[in-house]
Each structure stands twice: as structure tokens, then as C-alpha cells.
From TrEMBL:
One example GO MF annotation: aldehyde dehydrogenase (NAD+) activity
SUPFAM superfamilies the record matches: ALDH-like
Organism: Oidiodendron maius (strain Zn)
Pfam family, one: Aldedh
InterPro entries: Ald_DH/histidinol_DH, Ald_DH_N, Aldehyde_DH_dom
Group of enzyme by EC: oxidoreductase
Domain Aldehyde dehydrogenase: 1-91, 100-194
Protein name per Swiss-Prot or TrEMBL: aldehyde dehydrogenase (NAD(+))
Length: 194
């Protein structure tokens, strides 16, 4: 819903369980080669994504305005902060670590460390997440970065999926409790920002 006009925005796809299974399978397959890439290759992909994000900053700012109600100035600042997140992460010197993530907004650290990521944007503001990760897919091998949008079923499918090794969640305390409970069934590592 556009907060300024109260009119519906365009519809977005709703993932089904088969989409989750396909995404996890693609991430697992991509992990075999992506995890063996060099830090230099990962940095190059992150930096290329950051440059492309800036190329489309005006479009992303307008999109953020219609889905979140932010002013264009604030939306542009958020795009610039996203660019900084990508480029600053690419400057880090970290040891490599193995694992796979289903997360909400943790793309740069995940791919920088050789992991794959499946992102689930908020169902209330999915547009920028969907478009940004569509753009990111130009710079990474298939299956490394994926995005699924969906209804109330999608989160539980992801958190309970046995093929996902880590969950990173940013949101409410109530939902965070559900995430932790679901992840405990398969002893996944969980990071909650509540």
C-alpha cells in the first residue's frame, strides 16, 4: 500500500514451499563452488553490485518512497548507506568460514565470507529488497544470492528447513521468539536483532 495515496502498489509473488525447497537446493549447489572462490573474487562481486546500486539509486529512492513513505532525500540516504555497507564489508580482512544463511539483510557479510543467502523481505515493504537482489544476481553465480517473497507461511518454512544452517532475523520480539523456537528443532545457529 502506498502510504501517501493509500492505493495498492503492484502485486509481488508469493513463494510456496516448493520455491523454498528449490532455493535451498540451488544455494546448496552454488555453495560448492562459491565457498571456494577467493576473497578477491568475492570483493569484486560485492563492489560491482555496489556500483550498480548507485547507478539505479534514483529508481530505488522512488520505489522506497511508494512502499515505505520515506521522503526522496531519506530514501536516497538509505541507498547510499546500502552502498557503503557493501563497499565497507568488501574492505574487511576476515578468515573464511563455512555455513549457509537464510537472512533478511545480511547479504554483504554472507557472500564475503563465501556463504550463500536466501533473503525474505518484509511482506509489507518487499519492493526494494526484491529489486536490489534481482540486481545483485548479475554479479554472483546462480544460487549464491536469492530472494523469496511470501505470506506468513514463508518464514516458518525457511526457519524449519533442514537445508538451512543459519538464520539472521531483524524484527519484533514476538516474531523473534517464533524464529528461535522453529530453528531449535534443527539446532540452527540464530542471530536475532529485536
Amino acid at each position: 500500500m502506498n502510504p501517501a495515496t493509500k492505493r495498492p502498489n503492484a502485486e509481488v509473488p508469493i513463494a510456496i514451499l516448493e520455491d523454498v525447497n528449490d532455493a535451498v537446493a540451488a544455494a546448496r549447489a552454488a555453495f560448492k563452488s562459491w565457498s571456494k572462490t577467493t576473497i578477491r573474487e568475492r570483493v569484486a562481486a560485492l563492489n560491482a553490485f555496489a556500483v550498480a546500486l548507485l547507478e539505479y539509486k534514483d529508481e530505488f529512492a522512488r520505489l522506497m518512497t511508494i512502499e515505505q513513505g520515506k521522503t526522496l532525500d531519506l530514501a536516497t540516504m538509505e541507498i547510499m548507506a546500502s552502498h557503503a555497507w557493501l563497499t565497507e564489508t568488501a574492505k574487511l580482512e576476515l578468515p573464511e568460514e563455512i555455513g549457509m544463511f537464510a537472512a533478511i539483510a545480511k547479504v554483504a557479510p554472507a557472500v564475503y565470507t563465501g556463504n550463500n543467502i536466501i533473503v525474505k523481505p518484509s511482506p509489507f515493504t518487499p519492493y526494494c529488497g526484491l529489486k536490489a537482489l534481482e540486481l545483485a544476481q548479475r554479479f554472483f553465480p546462480p544460487g549464491v544470492i536469492q530472494v523469496l517473497s511470501g505470506d506468513d507461511n514463508l518464514g516458518p518454512w525457511l526457519t524449519a528447513h533442514p537445508g538451512i544452517d543459519k538464520i539472521s532475523f531483524t524484527g519484533s520480539v514476538a516474531t523473534g521468539k517464533k524464529v528461535m523456537e522453529s530453528a531449535s528443532k534443527t539446532l540452527k545457529r540464530v542471530t536475532l536483532e529485536l
